[in-house]
Amino acid sequence: MKKPTSLTNQFLIAMPDLHDPHFDHAVTLICEHNEQGAMGIVINQPLDLNISEILQHLDIQLSDQFNDSSVFSGGPVHTEVGLILHPPAGQWESSIRLSDELCITSSKDILKALGQGKGPEKVHLVLGYAGWGPGQLEQELLDNAWLTTPADAEIVFNTPNDKRWTQAVQSIGIDPMRLSTQTGHA
Length: 186
Prior knowledge:
There is one protein chain. By secondary structure, the chain is an alpha+beta fold. It has one domain: VC0467-like, CATH 3.40.1740. It is 19% helix and 31% strand. It has helices at 51-57, 108-115, 136-142, 153-158, 164-170, and strands at 10-14, 27-34, 37-42, 46-50, 70-73, 77-86, 95-97, 103-105, 124-132, 146-150. Strands 1, 2, 3, 4, 5, 6, 7, 8, 9 and 10 form a 10-stranded mixed sheet that branches. The longest helix is centred in the middle third of the chain and has 8 residues, at 108-115. 36% of the residues are buried.
């Protein structure tokens, strides 16, 4: 049997008819995908919360760098867990390098550095993540729930939140207005 292709460091782009409230028009960065399942973080669903509020809650000294930056819902699993997506710079206790442009960190030391203005220049903080069991994501792809494309740090860090889904769709050469939920099989 052929080993499935890993979707690590790929975007999952929700099809328009995916009406699960956690994934409606979601762009999800896959952080890990193997035979045990997949884990990813949604990058375009802001919460009514900003980074300064998170740092204050954790009694971390504040700098002005990210005070107004939004915190995002990363998915419906373990919503109390904070994860920070950032360019791979710095030495943090618990980081996974996804590519030359993206790294994800879950340790508190990066939050302390952010509070002191010594953290990465670009950050995307999420609470929670998305998870799929063995074969679940593959079946959702067969069911036409998602499009896939290589992850793009430009979309994560420099595209306005309300434009990320459209930009991700356009990055694969598709006009979002013409996106059909119908599939054809030969």
